[in-house]
Every structure is written in C-alpha cells, then in structure tokens.
Amino acid sequence: MKIQETLAEGKTKKIYATDETDQLIMEFLDVIPQETSKKATLKGKGAINAAISAYLFDYLGSYNVPTHFIKQLDDNSLVVKKLDMIPFKMVIWNLACDSLAKRLGLKDGTVLETPVLELYLKNAKLKNPLINDYHAYALGLCDRSEMGSIVRIATKVNAVLKSFFYRKKLTLANFELEFGKSGSQVLMGDELSPDTFTVWDDVDTDKMDKKPFQITPEAAKTVYPKLHERLLK
Predict the structure, then answer these.
(1) Terminal CA-to-CA distance of the chain, rounded, Å?
(2) Residue 21 pLDDT exceeds 60
(3) Rounded Cα gap, residues 6 and 109, in angstroms
(4) Nearest alpha-carbon partner for 154 in 81, 90, 61, 86
(5) N or C: which end of the chain has fewer CB within 10 A?
(6) CA-closest candidate to residue 14, choices 191, 141, 158
(7) pLDDT of residue 203
(8) CA distances, 188 to each of 5, 54, 155, 191, 213 (Å)
(9) Distances (CA, A) of 152 to 121, 160, 193
(10) H or E element at residue 101
C-alpha cells in the first residue's frame, strides 16, 4: 500500500489517500488536544492512541459493530475504509459531568438513568453548535433511515464499551463518535482513544477525585501510558 497524497490534517491525526481507492491511512500524531491554539506534544502518544483505537475497533468488530477499521498498519497508523463522512459528531453521556452537568444543573458525576445522545455540527466557524435530528434532516446531513442506523450503532457501541471498561475497573463517562457512509451502509469512523473518551477510575471507590485520567498538557505524560496499560493488559 502506497500513500498518494494528504487528504486532511487535524490537530491529532492525518488522513492519506492510497493506491487502494477505497482505503485510507489514518496516522495518529504525538500532539495533545487542547482548546487553545498552543501546541503541546508527547513522544509516543500517537502510537498509544493507534494501539487503543485498533484494539477497541477490533473488539467492537467481534460484536458485529460496523466500523471503517481494516487493520493496524504500523505503530502510528491504521488502514481504514474510505467513507463519505456525515458532518456531525455524536457525544454519548453515561454520567452527567463537565459541560453536561453545568447545562442541566446536576452534580458532577451523576449517573444518568438513560444515556444521553447529543449531536454537534462539525463547523468550526460556528463553534460546532449543538443540533438535533431535525436540524440534521433540514441541513441534508442524513435522512431518517441513516439516523436510525446511527442511533442503533451508537447505542450498541455504548453498551459494549461500558461493559468492557467496567471489567477494567473504569467508568465510561462519555465519548465521541463519528459516522460515514460506504455506499448505502452507515459505518462508525474516526477513532476510539483517550482523545475521544472520558473515563473515571473505579479502583478506589472512596476516593473523592475520581478523574485521574483527565488529559492536560501537564498530566499527559502519565495519563496516556496508564490508560494504555489499563485497557490493553
């Protein structure tokens, strides 16, 4: 497989076209995601995210979850199916924490009776606003049948991953998913890594601070390796 050109470059990944027209290479970078434009890096971080993503995609595949993952190419890169991406991301909340807790006036860490699924339009100029399914239809982002597939996939992914993280003595507080189409089929795309999920530690249930895995430039040096060890051991 040969790289033809760079198709996209985000804060933490690069996407390359290949000589296989229906396959792409997704390269994970050593950049730590931040809200500001300031750039922070951590050597080996890209390899950790690639390994975790490959492992979780493969795990979801064993439960017949349709994803774009094909294989891990090298330490930092995955081979994935080329998708026509749907321009919104979905955030699935199992705990009311961070921004959701503030918006709903709930105590940080409140366990939700049912998972909350939110959609955010991928438009940086508009600051990625919160939308609902009717906005998605009105904007022509997807149709009702595709939205049904997206919700079914997301719900199944949440159930499978919650159970997986529970066995690792971690609570899956929230995570992000993206979706795309391969022909008429809706598939889960993007990544599954510490950059896209938030977990709380269940090892010490009496500990007041249950968020040792929050990623900041200062904590990144320990957070990524610890999550890599906990999830893949």
Answers:
(1) 30
(2) yes
(3) 40
(4) 90
(5) C
(6) 191
(7) 66
(8) 23, 13, 12, 9, 25
(9) 19, 12, 21
(10) helix 98-104
Model pTM score: 0.93
What is the identity of the amino acid at 152?
A: R
Quote the CA–CA distance of 91 and 129 in Å, as a whole number.
12
Residue type, 224: Y
Chain centroid to Cα 161, Å, comes to 12
Whole-number Å distance between alpha carbons of 146 and 86: 10
> Per-residue pLDDT tens for 135-162?
999 999 999 999 999 999 999 999 999 9
Tokens, residue 141:
């982002």
**Locus of tokens 């508009």:** 126
Res 208 pLDDT > 50? no
Q: Are 178 and 150 in contact (CB under 8 A)?
A: no
Residues 6+ positions from 151 with CB-CB distance below 8 Å: 117
- Do residues 54 and 72 lie in contact, with contact meaning Cβ atoms separated by under 8 Å? yes
